[in-house]
């Protein structure tokens, strides 16, 4: 399993209903997008980080390992706003107010990504998909998502074994050998994906698959107190943002 999935299954909020955590996490994500970047997105970012490290019980190392990838996309996307193509007198030049716009986008996107990670670190995928099924999402859609979720781990395990075999055969000693090994890895992984999909289909058919994948999930109940506290926290962030926006330059 991926580290984020292990953390979700061992989270302190594992026994909470997905709706409880969705109200809090998705609420923070919505505030990060709608509130002013300063100080709104900053407050959301700090709040999500405190919730992850505190009540959710996720270590800083795990948060950083999961956050650094989306954060890299945020930085890359924001950096493109600092330049403009076809400027008068130059093909590429600094965009007017580019750094200001880039900073705003970076604050919003990084805070929103932490809000999503709060849900991912505390809610296993099986719980989330089962909840969506009860909300009325078509069963075939949920089944496809569950199968893809399972296939991810199978493919990652296959890729790991192939890389270990290539390294044992000195397939990464030179740059040329590394590129050759990478091409072989992609080809073998592509073939294995189809092979494993076929095996899974035959296995489901042999077990009397009737169009619905049944997954055992714990019996969870919505906590009105948790939802109410989440709404109070979100409201407090909105009020604090409006107050600080007037006080701070």
From TrEMBL:
The chain crosses the membrane at residues 22-50, 70-93, 131-156, 226-244. InterPro entries: ABC/ECF_trnsptr_transmembrane, Cobalt_transport_CbiQ, ECF_CbiQ. It is a multi-pass membrane protein. It comes from the Bacteria. The keyword DNA-binding does not apply. It is found in: Cell membrane. Keywords: Cell membrane, Membrane, Transmembrane, Transmembrane helix. Pfam families: CbiQ. This is Cobalt ECF transporter T component CbiQ. It comes from Streptomyces cremeus. The gene is cbiQ.
């Amino acid at each position: 399993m991926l580290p984020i999935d292990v953390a979700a299954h061992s989270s302190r909020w594992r026994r909470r209903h997905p709706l409880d955590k969705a109200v809090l996490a998705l609420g923070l994500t919505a505030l990060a997008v709608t509130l002013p970047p300063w100080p709104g997105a900053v407050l959301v970012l700090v709040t999500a980080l405190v919730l992850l490290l505190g009540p959710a019980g996720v270590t800083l190392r795990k948060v950083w390992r999961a956050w650094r990838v989306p954060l890299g996309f945020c930085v890359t996307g924001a950096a493109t706003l600092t330049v403009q193509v076809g400027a008068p007198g130059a093909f590429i030049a600094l965009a007017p107010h580019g750094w200001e716009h880039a900073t705003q986008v970076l604050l919003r996107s990084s805070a929103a990504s932490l809000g999503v990670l709060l849900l991912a670190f505390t809610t296993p995928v099986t719980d989330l998909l089962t909840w969506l099924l009860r909300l009325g999402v078509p069963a075939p859609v949920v089944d496809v998502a569950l199968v893809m979720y399972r296939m991810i781990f199978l493919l990652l395990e296959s890729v790991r074994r192939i890389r270990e075999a290539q390294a044992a055969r000195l397939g990464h000693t030179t740059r040329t050998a590394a590129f050759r090994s990478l091409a072989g890895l992609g080809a073998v992984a592509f073939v294995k994906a189809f092979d494993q999909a076929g095996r899974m289909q035959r296995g489901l058919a042999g077990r009397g698959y009737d169009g619905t994948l049944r997954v055992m999930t714990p019996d969870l109940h919505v906590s009105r107190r948790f939802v109410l506290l989440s709404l109070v926290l979100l409201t407090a962030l909105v009020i604090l943002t409006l107050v600080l926006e007037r006080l701070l330059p």
